[in-house]
Design brief:
CATH class of chain A: Alpha Beta
Strand order of the largest sheet of chain A: 2-1-8-7-6
Helix content of chain A: 40-55%
Number of helices of chain A: 14
CATH topology of chain A: Beta-lactamase
Distance between the termini of chain A: 14 Å
Number of domains of chain A: 1
Largest sheet of chain A: 5 strands, antiparallel
CATH superfamily of chain A: DD-peptidase/beta-lactamase superfamily
Oligomer: homotetramer
Number of strands of chain A: 8
Structural class of chain A: alpha+beta
CATH architecture of chain A: 3-Layer(aba) Sandwich
Strand content of chain A: 5-15%
Chain lengths: ~300, ~300, ~300, ~300
């Protein structure tokens, strides 16, 4: 197929239209009151190609809580800072267990399976606490730079709501600390984690921010590569095998693109060499991923024949 | 990069040369006496591109025991026969456990995580037993057709050796039968499994046979597609997340190509749209994958910049 | 309390009467057709004190399938033969998992937690196969001697029925063989196991047979002790911690006597220094133990104040 | 045997003498600095029979950190307060996992297996927090009353040391709170737990305090029974199946008495109807139980033939 002639805008509109019956379906994340209030009728998509062309549909410019998508940003920062040392404290294998399981952690002596399960992201947060005096600000600055949007904020209400419900994450952090894999105070790690999960961004922001993953590490707004090609490849493969919680295999299989989801209903996906794109629909399926978002991405790749496979 | 001008032959030779220090390193699979005898000095690679160009180096035409690589062939046959019904009896998610774990199976009531762990391949063998009067012959005929090589055989000595060591697989099969997920006789399932694992093929045979996975399901030797584009995409994504046992995440991360390995020391990898390739080195690392094979594929993609990411 | 004046017969009758509302409740073991046919209306109890006084009520002389109760006999034989060497191949700790779990076995490298879970009893059967030319006959002779009843038989129909449903046990045996903890043929081990589980005995037979456990290892029909006091103590403590599958703690807590149950609906209990007793009611609770049998033993100890505690 | 004529004092002295080669062996608990300092040369035993006769040997009147032995006191208080309601929040089955495992907790949705594993004791502490305005004082008063010793104190240094090392317990508590099985603040639960574990008592104090368990719930210092006979039986059976961490089965098997151990090196055991006794030796075996204490109790029951079996 000639990639130059693909009508991205038409594709987005068609996919949005065809998935309209799913509007309002699924349930918003209910363990965080501030998220539970969001209407499941929202839906938006945005795509940015490697030539800078921007395409969008629906609620593409409404900011929403990015939740676990933020784990890509913190991991990227940690990799920039520490390189492959990161892997001494967190693994790179897919997890056969639910995203917040303690079983795996116990079996593997406090080393989380990968940086996208909660335990792994908490370790990454701990790394950033060690590396920066003000890691919260560091993350926000980095994300604003990637998205070319200085108005991106952390939603304090969500962060607070999140912290109140954080007993499972507190358990994970204390548990890893008992194995010596958390250096900072548990309280600080949880704080940072709840804060970066509560960043609010739009589909357009996210598509822009993930651009370097479609461009071998290069991002228009950075002089130096955001990551080396080698680390970029690694980040994409990690999203491929572990980006959608316990539904990663199913998603790789249906959509065939590296991607990362969050319980706020967002999914960001990348076709290396071609584009980065984001979809948002707050209604979740039983595995915590956007019901309409997955369907839309599935159709997008099926109709267009675009896929890394 | 202009893919048309890549010097595949030069790349293979360079990679073969650079990994020579690994010759003789690792250990051959020792649980099967017939495999343990193979010299770990062997090494070969073959690549076939979508235009039919064939490139090879070293022992590329010596047949070896393909072992778990055969699981791709049996799954393909089952998908041709049953389509998506296959997934009612076997999952599609990566397994966080070693390839022959019973824990996962117990937790998930006899449904294996995916068709590449042993339990999953045993269920697929059971499906073929139900679908064909002589499934052993069916598999062999299919593989010969894919490879354009009618001299491909099952190594009876390996198959016998394999059956004698098959207590773990017998346990898996009986266990799944206790959950109702095996319809045939345990003995027959094990027989078929040990037979298809004992097919002997060369790197050149394997590169040819996997060609349809690089070509959206199309294979030169078949009039109809071997699999639909949709199922091809799915098979590739399954290799991506689960093709190298407990090292799948690490491999995806280092090499960035869908691939499948076997304890005979073979690895077959695919770059969709471009080529299929096979490497063979019988010395294994501690996770049961070819030591030199992985290193060679890593260098191949790193030097060339070829990767799905 | 003066143990000399306890009216055992009166107690049995009262308990039988009080538990009559449970007649017909529960379900007979349904995975073995030959057991599923037994009426859940049956109920009987028998008690033999250390002076030889025999007391009984209801269907105390109707033979039923002793099932897992037979594990006490095979373990006793193995201990007589091998002494403490037995413990190199099977553990002595309570199992936190269901009685036929493979998870524990995988975590502990093929060494079953204790001889009363299925895996442990299969290893004990393998020990007897190694120690005797005709272990099936050896067990039967031993049980007849203990019970002073030469008409005790193995119910061939049950044994056959059992073998047909033995996929879980076959899985356990193959699995342990893969770890090197089974020396004989899997087929032979399963055969012996299914045979000894299919011995048919009455409450009176069982009360007699367990007498040595109430008498520090001494049994009237044997010149030498059946077991040393030390091994007798150990067997009792094993019944105390692991005699009723996943309900052992609950039973120890309600009844406070070492005991062993079977899915045929039998339970044998011992008050060291005082008596051995058996109860039989084929209706099982959801953990596989006799519903009325447990209630009857609970009342028996509560009313009488008899308990090791 | 005529229990009236047993020479308890002679037995204690003989056992103390025979186990002298174990003095200094094992290691003191090292995860709590304040415990690690204790000399492993200490050893003492005390026994009190149901007629009030007190016998002791060695360091029987030196107070030491009772640690997990305190779980018997808090459970007793909870049972006095809430009766069988206790069991809606904590189970009664032996745990096949190490004492501080999270795996079991995850599998069983936040309900600990029994009140003697850490998770269970933390839930019991939470119950006491709900039931009393000053539970720390309540526990101390209760223990002083049972031991007839008003000088019993909480070792604040140990409590503090303990809290600093409490990440595993914090993980357990947060985890259970995420399942809704902890009502109070995590901080308060951990505080109370670390405090009651840090009570310091001598062998004589402990033998006295456990007397009610040898006397069907009756204690000389209380007008009313401490517990009903039924609950006493239950507490004994719980100690029998779960009193010595992952060594409970082994201990039941060697010693044959209900008992509870602590990592301070203490073990308290009971022969219902006859006596309660305590042993103390700070050198631990690899399962966290007193090396010399277990050996001494083993010899004590073997020489005397005293055992519930």
């Amino acid at each position: 197929m000639n990639m130059d002639t693909i009508d991205y805008q038409g594709l987005l509109e068609r996919v949005c239209e065809e998935t309209r019956p799913l509007a309002g379906k699924g349930h918003a994340a209910d363990y965080i009151p501030a998220l539970a209030e969001i209407s499941t009728d929202h839906f938006g998509m945005a795509l940015i190609d490697t030539k800078g062309g921007l395409y969008s549909v629906g609620d593409a410019d409404i900011p929403f809580s990015i939740q676990s998508i933020s784990k890509v940003f913190t991991l990227t920062l940690a990799l920039r800072e520490l390189g492959n040392e990161v892997w001494s404290r967190v693994g790179r294998e897919p997890s056969g267990h639910p995203f917040n399981s303690l079983i795996q952690l116990e079996n593997e002596q406090g080393i989380p399976r990968n940086p996208f399960i909660n335990a792994g992201a908490l370790v990454v947060a701990d790394m950033l606490l060690e590396a920066h005096p003000d890691p919260r600000d560091k993350i926000l600055t980095f994300v604003r730079m990637l998205s070319a949007n200085n108005s991106i904020l952390i939603d304090e209400r969500v962060a607070l709501s999140e912290k109140r419900a954080a007993h499972r994450n507190a358990a994970l952090t204390h548990f890893m600390k008992s194995f010596g894999n958390i250096g900072g105070e548990v309280e600080d790690v949880l704080n940072l984690y709840c804060n970066h999960c509560s960043i609010a961004m739009s589909c357009i922001d996210l598509a822009r921010a993930f651009r370097f993953l479609a461009q071998k590490g290069i991002h228009q707004r950075f002089e130096e590569p955001v990551l080396t090609f080698s680390l970029t490849k690694r980040l994409n493969s990690l999203m491929m095998t572990s980006g959608l919680y316990n539904e990663s295999g199913e998603f790789a299989y249906r959509v065939g693109l590296p991607a990362k989801s969050g319980v706020g209903g967002g999914i960001v996906a990348v076709l290396p060499g071609h584009f980065s794109m984001a979809a948002w629909g707050p209604g979740l399926n039983e595995r915590g991923n956007s019901l309409r978002g997955i369907e839309a991405l599935d159709r997008f790749t099926t109709i267009s024949g675009l896929s890394i496979f």
